[in-house]
Amino acid sequence: MGIASPFYKIAWAVRQGPLGEGLANAWHKLAPSIDIWKKIYGFDICLDLRDSLIWWASDPAGIKEAEGFHTMLSGIKGNVWDVGCNVGVFSLYAASQGNRVISFDISPKAIRLLEKSAQRNKLSVTPIARAFAVESFKYTPPTDADTRNRPGAAADQETVTSMTFLEAEAQFGKPDFIKLDIEHAEVDFLKSTKFRDWIKTNRIPIIVEMHQKSYWDLVWPDVPHCDFDSGHVFFNPSPEIVAASKTREGKV
Asked: Residue range 129-149: average pLDDT?
């Protein structure tokens, strides 16, 4: 996620270092895990006081400006996969635009928050509480709804099997758009020739969050693409999707 407010920039910078880890751990120990509601993108979003600090402490106008969901989905209509949906703000926006939305997250708690928000806003999404993967693996799901959750980050036993992209296609049909934000696990997809060829063959537009500068070296040169913003690359193998292949600065 990317939020342009000064608070977010400072908070996110601190969160990445040892000090941020210590503060986050202290917050998780002290803060109660209770539902709170906040209006984001015009929707009532169910957040967790303990786990959703970045979301509830940030300015809604700044979130809307920085995330750019309206630009992201420009020219898109159909089957949208929100991979790494967390509390589901993008999922709800995509559903409100008439898309069929499949929402994947490794956190059952984040999925429950999304379900509450979808019910409150009278929107239909299909929530999947499983990791999304190139190849199948087993993991222990996190117990919180932190935006930085990753498979195996605090696993003591492996209890859940991930869902591969081919399994997802078999169950939900070919996607017309994918938003991929899975906290560094995007690298597995960028390195996979099988996934790249699937994207090319099926001409699936996909936006991938790039969590480190080195990830840009993994961008597929043989798939048409552009920088959506400084933290996302947009692959567009569908030439008929023109509007969505432009950044908010108007570059292609």
From this structure: 92
The conformation of residue 214, written as its DSSP 8-state character, comes to: G
Instruction: Say if domain 68-245 classifies as CATH 3.40.50.150.
Output: yes
Dist CA 24 CA 19 (whole Å): 9
Amino acid occupying residue 226:
C
- Closest of 106, 4, 15 to residue 61, by C-alpha: 4
- Cβ atoms 81, 178 nearer than 8 A: yes
Burial classification of residue 24, based on how many CB atoms lie within 10 Å of its CB (0-12 exposed, 13-18 middle, 19 or more buried): middle
What φ, ψ does residue 28 adopt, rounded to 5°? -65, -30
> 72-108 pLDDT, tens per residue?
998 899 999 999 999 999 999 999 999 999 999 999 9
Contact 23, 53 (CB under 8 A): no
CB atoms within 10 A of CB 191: 11
Enter the tokens of residue 201. 């063959």
- CB-based contacts of 168: which residues, under 8 Å, 6+ apart? 81, 102, 104, 128, 132
Burial of 138 (0-12, 13-18, 19+ CB in 10 A): middle
Q: Please, are residues 219 and 233 in contact by the beta-carbon 8 Å criterion?
A: yes
User: 31-38 long-range CB contacts below 8 Å, 24 or more apart?
Assistant: 33/144, 35/113, 35/116, 37/120
- Please, which residues bridge with residue 237 across strands? none
Does this model's pTM top 0.70? My answer is: yes
- Residues near 4 by Cβ (< 8 Å), separated by ≥ 6? 62, 65, 66
